[in-house]
Amino acid sequence: MKNVFDIFEERGFIEQTTDPHFLRGLLETPSTCYIGFDPTAKSLHVGSLLPIMALVHMQKEGHRPIALVGGGTGLVGDPSGKTETRPILTREKIDQNAEALKKQLSRFISFADDGAIMINNADWLTRLNYIEFLRDIGRHFSVNRMLAAESYKVRLETGLNFIEFNYMLLQAYDYWHLFKKFDCRLQMGGNDQWGNILAGADLIRRLEGEVAHALTFPLLTTSSGTKMGKTHKGAIWLDPDLTSPYDYYQYWINQGDEDVERFLALFTFLPMDDVHRLGKLQGADLRKAKEILAYEATRICHGEKAADKARRAAQELFGKGSTVSVESIPASVLDRDSLKSGIPAYILFEKVDLCATRSEARRLIGQGGGYLNDRRIETFDQVIDSRDLQNGELLLRAGKKRYMKIILT
Q1: Superfamily of 230-326 according to CATH
Q2: pLDDT tens across 322-381, in order?
Q3: Buried residues in 94-133 as b, exposed as e (16+ CB within 10 A)
Q4: Which option is the CATH number for 331-408: 3.10.290.10, 3.50.50.60, 3.10.450.50, 3.10.129.10?
């Protein structure tokens, strides 16, 4: 069986790690690792997909992943990677989000027969006695070293409150707790978590005299400089009710040419020989590689049936325009009466989320990028009314690839 450390290296998962030789040796035999997930929303988004894929690889190679839902640390708020204070959510909201994330993560990782563990750190952090915590845990932390951590240094410029300052201690305590209970010796996370993970490994060394490891992933941006998972419409969610499988498929197929090989390595399970072969394709042939990326990423997240439907819808849209079934593509419901008097095109594009703002819609249509039933809209204020209906529906398009079916009620 291949060492998962080698898989991480060849696929581009590793940004930093503690001693690679000793970590690789640890992963020669079945080991336990963990990654924490922040329950500040009811769904994870594409920005969380790299850690999820890492846990899947760990499980595939015989290791035991722990998916830690941060119900306790979520009550504090992680300052890492943020330039301002995160909003503090109520315990009730945190618990609701945590339950939703548990269900979502189970689509990627099998929790049957203890093959993986899902746990909420609220189970122990909310029971801590503050004085005992300071005495037993806090005394092992140097304030000078904490302030030198990148996550704190950035926040010191804009303001770091005391509750956030405790976050490193709590995450370190999590690592120690999981080490004690599950013999967990590897914590993984985004590279902005490096200082927090090292703090946990150091706490285990101080309290137990044992070695624990850290591994961080690169903080991904697309070749255009956009943060992974962000679009003009906002985040690309893993929840199909927030981002439809069709939109999810379109997100991947629209990635830049320079990103295809890298994303095939990170976000699919294709053999690396196939990844390199697809990455070498040029021109029109590269479209095939993007289709494979989009299909595989959608299949992993939403299942084969949804991926088949999204791929079929995309193929039909590019080939036959408005003949696609409503179930296959994004749809927006519009009140029939509102169409009787007519709606200016730029207002309708903003209303159905094809454009983020009306000014963006005016620019798009003014530059010839707005379409109604596969015909270019001539002016941004062209009125769209019931006379434009085809088979009782409208098909809008923004640019070459973003479609929206309008259904009337």
Answers
A1: Tyrosyl-Transfer RNA Synthetase (1.10.240.10)
A2: 444 445 567 777 777 778 888 898 988 888 888 888 999 899 999 999 998 878 998 998
A3: bbebbebbbebbeebbeeeeeebbbbbbbeebeeeeeeee
A4: 3.10.290.10
